[in-house]
């Protein structure tokens, strides 16, 4: 018996802002999350999982802002299978035009016994209560049996039947640890269809992790087995090795759609820009050979390949670069361009800014234009996203002075504005000018931050290119950083923060990014110290 639903449209569920943000080192503020959500709406994804509202006040605020300001996609909030989580998720998403509550509960014995410390009967009771509660609040409810692919299929089927009886509209079957293989996954889903006939009345969803490099392959196998929702993340970011990459799943169906009779609603020409935005705001670089959006994805070095492409593009290219928006870099401004030209260029890129925000952007644009002959679309994207990083109150690098030579250790002096608005100075020597600035910022702020990751990338080519710095720090003494005592549960835990910045001067970009990373870590330490319970603290610590 066929398990394929009548619809040939595959819904794209984007979890960049929830599962994606759980990647080590990623820390997004509300303005950054809102900007990504707005771009996901332009990309025309069907569902945006905006976050985990109970995890922290900041996560709740971001989900609520997205629910109120982003139009088009379904806005989804994640909740564990308990009353407090579900109430908090509903409070965050209730103002959305199209809200969804996504609640989850493990069905694998290893999770039930060792994580939940519970029983199968208790799990069935929790599933019934949580879906019923969510359904009483929200018409659109998704249920996930976590770690399903390592669970007993008959027991998982029992739990899914309960969820459907209580009104779940989407059933998501996750490969939580990235363990399954395509044929196994398809067989597992086919067996669920056999055991739970009511599953055909709901949307079957797949959520695959990439621990064995099979996230997209498994997701596609799920679609072929009847799933009509695929959970993805931009650039494949997420826990451990990440999630199924949205761009790969979408372009697979776009390129081979006629072969499989399926399509998505995604506006593919927005893919490249969405990828750049997420990479820039998260600080996660895209590997050069990444399928679809890596910088080498449409590059040809072999002479034979180059000759073929020059004669006829389709000799070695199965996709047109323009189909993912790679021809959208035609905007070029210069130092003589005015405010109106900048505003129009930003509108063409999808940014709507006015008033004080436009004035600030114009000032930064002029500073860059004085140092670069041409300001391109990618420069403008970097400029605007850099502005978003200043939305959060914290430490700001006001100015710096560096003395460096090959004859003596570099010395840096910095002035930093504190969250209270006070200007404090710090001086230090280091192994190089950037190390000296980082140490001077520590001296000025009094925060024992320790560098864990540092990277500089060029936004565009050329000697006058903008440099983008990405920094991850770890607090040496989290309690001292916020002048508070931590609960004993957190002793020995790592509290990290990430920051990014762009400038034509990479030393300036590095110093600004470092100050932002310190701010991120301190804010997280404060949130952890104020958390209500151990689960909430653990959730905060799992998301840098």
UniProtKB/TrEMBL annotation:
The keyword GTP-binding does not apply. It comes from Paraconexibacter sp. AEG42_29. Catalyzes the condensation of the acetyl group of acetyl-CoA with 3-methyl-2-oxobutanoate (2-ketoisovalerate) to form 3-carboxy-3-hydroxy-4-methylpentanoate (2-isopropylmalate). The lineage of its organism: Bacteria, Bacillati, Actinomycetota, Thermoleophilia, Solirubrobacterales. Pathway: Amino-acid biosynthesis; L-leucine biosynthesis; L-leucine from 3-methyl-2-oxobutanoate: step 1/4. Its cofactor is Mn(2+). The keyword Aminoacyl-tRNA synthetase does not apply. Belongs to the alpha-IPM synthase/homocitrate synthase family. LeuA type 1 subfamily. InterPro entries: 2-IPM_HCS-like (IPR050073), 2-isopropylmalate_synth_dimer (IPR013709), AIPM/Hcit_synth_CS (IPR002034), Aldolase_TIM (IPR013785), LeuA/HCS_post-cat (IPR054691), LeuA_allosteric_dom_sf (IPR036230), LeuA_bact_synth (IPR005671), PYR_CT (IPR000891). Mn(2+) binds at residues 19, 207, 209, 243. SUPFAM superfamilies: 2-isopropylmalate synthase LeuA, allosteric (dimerisation) domain, Aldolase. NCBIfam families: leuA_bact, PRK00915.1-3. Homodimer. Residues 396-544 are annotated as: Regulatory domain. Keywords: Acyltransferase, Amino-acid biosynthesis, Branched-chain amino acid biosynthesis, Cytoplasm, Leucine biosynthesis, Manganese, Metal-binding, Transferase. Residues 10-272 form the Pyruvate carboxyltransferase domain. It is an enzyme of class 2 (transferase). HAMAP family: LeuA_type1 (MF_01025). This is 2-isopropylmalate synthase.
